[in-house]
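Working notes for the structural subgroup meeting. M.R. asked for a predicted model of this chain before we commit to crystallization trials. I am recording the input and output together here so anyone reviewing the notebook later can reproduce the run.

Input as submitted:
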Amino acid sequence: MNFKNKEEFWIFYMNHHSNPSTRKWHFIGTLFSIIFLLFSIILTWWFLFLVPLSFYGFALYSHLFIEENFPVTIGYPFWSLYCDLKLFLFMVSGKMDREIKRLGKRPVLQFL
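Returned structure, recorded in token form:
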């Protein structure tokens, strides 16, 4: 698929993350990745190994066993990373329900 802009990809991305549990697992993986990145800066660089493991591990689990689809990261790694972080920020800021409504999906309770 060819996407003209980030908004088109965001819609595609959210269609692959329609289950609220999938978004929660992505949130957890991103949160742990940020924590491990900070630990690697503050404590020791060994924590860097845990950054991609947590980031992609939680996401892969959610896609295979909850959403039952294939992660879009494989075909679109940079846009997918952008959308993962956007998803995380929407959830942290409490704006996820509004975004779900904007995209025409059923609203769900916030994770936080």
